[in-house]
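To whoever is covering the structure queue this week,

Two jobs came back overnight. Logging them here so there's a record in the thread.

Job A:
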Amino acid sequence: MTLADHDDRWDADVPLPEPRTNRPVTLLHRLEAVGADLLFAWSRRAGIEKASNRLGWLLRRLGPRLRKPHGRGHANLSLVMPELDAAQREEILREEWENLGRTVAEFAHLDTVGDRTTVLRAERVTELVREGRPAIFVSGHFANWEAMAIALHRLGLRYAVVYRAANNPLVDQKIIRLRAAVMSRRQIPKGKRGGRELMRAAKDGLSLCMLTDQKLGDGISVPLLGHSAMTAPAAARLALRGNLPVIPLQIVRQPGSRFTMTVHDPIEVERSGDTAADTERLTGAINGILGDFIRERPGQWLWFHRRWPSG
């Protein structure tokens, strides 16, 4: 039994965030929501492994036909890993498409993902739980990234999770509810809508779980895989302000829709007393760790977004 298996959840009274309200619900949104429901129902009937295998197989073959994202993936790989030839890049991107398909299929099975996730060095989390000390956990969109917040919840951590709201308000609402059943109900959307809530969660003494690998247009420019990338500095700023440890999480997909999450040592950087310089230095150190994770298993990271200016 994990600490989170008790009947009384610490966050039982925490209200869930509202879905997107900055855009009206259109007919296309309704059709997308119906499609999502059908995909969810099919995946539940098929079972996690069969659904993951089938949708992974399908996207591995169909994804490369989507020229815009697939071409962007080639451009990103050419930029940061110029030693790879075209065939090697193509194989990495096909692995990525397969991983993405698997992750989508597995979303209908978030209630079982925790049972399929092995946590290495879990004592680093349970010690924080026992002592009531908060921390900031950082990672990226690796393997099935939902597994990390689920694992932290099962270890009894009191935390808030930062997420990117879905473009479709109806789908966004479904995702919020699905996540709330297996991870923290304290869910904070990225951007201006969640900025104040993020600060409030930190003041409440909660740990924070953040995926910091995606581009933030109004972030700060620090290297990722050797090239400047606009990066969200929130994790570093909150860590420095609250004197909190920054702990990287690495999630790896294993065969059979199973996962291994490693809780790494806190990131250590020397502080100069210059807040801006220290924030940039810590953000760069976070990107350095995430870059190592990417290089270890490039086929389990999302290469399709515009992470670098030339991407």
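Job B:
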Amino acid sequence: MEQTPKYPQKQKADQRLLVVCVDRDNDVGDKANIATPAFGRDACIEAAQRLALEDPEDADSNSIFAAVKTYEDIISKGYSAEVITVAGSADRGMYADEKIAGEIRLALERFPATGAVIVSDGEDDESVIPVIQGVLPIISVKRVVMKTSRTVEYSYAVLGRYLKMIAYDPKYSKFFLGLPGVLLLIGGIGSVFGYTAEIFAVLVSVFGGALLVRAFDVDKVLSGWARPAPAGFIRLFMLLGGAVLVLSSIPAGLTSLNPAVFGMDITVVITDKIVLGQFVAGALPILWVGVGAVLAGAPLASLIERARVHSGYILRLVVLGSLYPTVYQFTNIVLHDESSFSLIIPLLGGLAATLVAAGVLFWRSRRDRASHGD
């Protein structure tokens, strides 16, 4: 009877395994002031205890204890083994990986191992596996995961911190708590006195105004009023002037409508493409000038301060101007039933102008960086 060939296996006594706990960001050094490599069972236990005392929430202390437990399990199975804790640096860069490789080489001088068992608490520590592989063959990798779900636990911790920030940080509480508080107070008072419909309009207006204030940083501009400066006045003037122009585009659009429209049903008016085209055509010029005034405030203020005008400010104005012919031609299509293909030329022209402006601004930015580098 033919026997199955037996492949030679290395005896357990001949295998010398090094259990390596990896702390790539060097919490054990920065927080617990432990010099690495921590060589041996007692040194690793001391490092884990000191790190747990300094920062009980740090998972690296659990990883070190897990490495010690792994070491004891390997010893109990008849292998020759040793356990160490190695650490990198806080920046987690190339220096951290080189430091870990150097510490493993130091450990190999004391314990010439034939293989390594890596113990870590996450993917960041495991990213140094190729580095360790270049120094010592890796037999196994063990990831330490807490029995309580780390994802859920972390999510609750982060949620608690954000809630605390919203409740106690004035920077956030006045918007996330103050605004809803004002709306609820107004709504409650209106319900008591029976002005439900009117109060709803007020609530929508207040909420919309608050969103506009945050969207255009009106509060930051107004906060600079206490420190009057030419640039601040320019920003405020352009912002308020642009807002007035944007609002005035609505009556401008209404005046361009046929007077007979105002006697028609509102649903018919909204769905009529001729009415839509007339309104857009009348409102478009003032609306575009108003938006341009808002966007021009920042670059004008930079010029007043003799500071470098950010490329993004200029590009926004270029994009706004490039879009105007396309939107204007759209109103002609709606009003005069022109072909939709007539949009192609203004669209391509606007795209070309935007690309040229973006290229010039990018070239200027690279030139300025090169001159500063020289």
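Note for Job B: The first strand starts at residue 16 and ends at 23.

Please reply-all if you pick these up so we don't duplicate work.
Q.
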